[in-house]
Design a protein that fits this description.
- With 167 residues, the chain is an alpha+beta fold.
- The chain has one domain: Alpha-Beta Complex (Maf protein).
- Strands 2-1-3-4-5 form a 5-stranded antiparallel sheet.
- Helix 2 packs antiparallel against helix 3.
- It starts with 16 loop residues before the first helix and ends with a helix.
Length: 167
């Protein structure tokens, strides 16, 4: 079952990026847990994640609008940034496990026209860093280092291994 948490993601962006992502995931997890308890629903494990971009230790989330998306893509253009997914797992035993997965993404030195053509697709909206590597945003990327699924937003292999060990 998938439950979309209805909580604010308003932690201070002065936190270290890894802590910001991990604590935001925990807040989402806690919201879902409280909803399940209130509705008296059982669970084996609650998985909550939050994916952010870190560039020069600045936290970059989802764009506010297309102008903001363009500014972000221009900032990342030709450079390497980190994709950090914070994960919070809560087991039915009450045990909570928090961790993060980090991957590096290097952008091509894209011409302005490439960035502008990508922006008009509308795809940047709703994606941390203003791009979706699993979609058209792949054209912006030169290379990755680390877990591809983390960059997409859900580091499945790491989550699976943690759950396998604990259940």
């Amino acid at each position: 079952m998938v439950i979309q948490p209805e909580c604010e993601e308003n932690l201070s962006k002065t936190l270290p990026p890894e802590e910001y992502a991990t604590e935001t995931a925990y807040i989402k997890n806690d919201w879902v847990y409280n909803k399940l308890v209130q509705e008296k629903k059982d669970f084996d494990v609650i998985i909550a994640c939050d994916t952010i971009i870190s560039f020069n230790n600045e936290i970059i989330g989802k764009p506010l609008n297309l102008t903001n998306a363009k500014e972000t893509l221009e900032k990342l253009n030709g450079k390497t940034h980190q994709v950090i997914t914070g994960v919070a797992l809560r087991y039915s035993t009450g045990r909570v496990e928090k961790f993060y997965v980090k991957s590096n993404v290097t952008f091509n030195d894209n011409k302005d026209s490439i960035i502008e053509d990508y922006i008009v697709t509308g795809e940047p909206m709703g994606h941390a860093g203003s791009y979706a590597i699993q979609k058209k945003g792949a054209i912006l990327v030169k290379s990755i280092e680390g877990c591809y699924n983390n960059i997409v937003g859900l580091p499945l292999s790491v989550i699976y291994e943690k759950i396998r060990i604990n259940i």
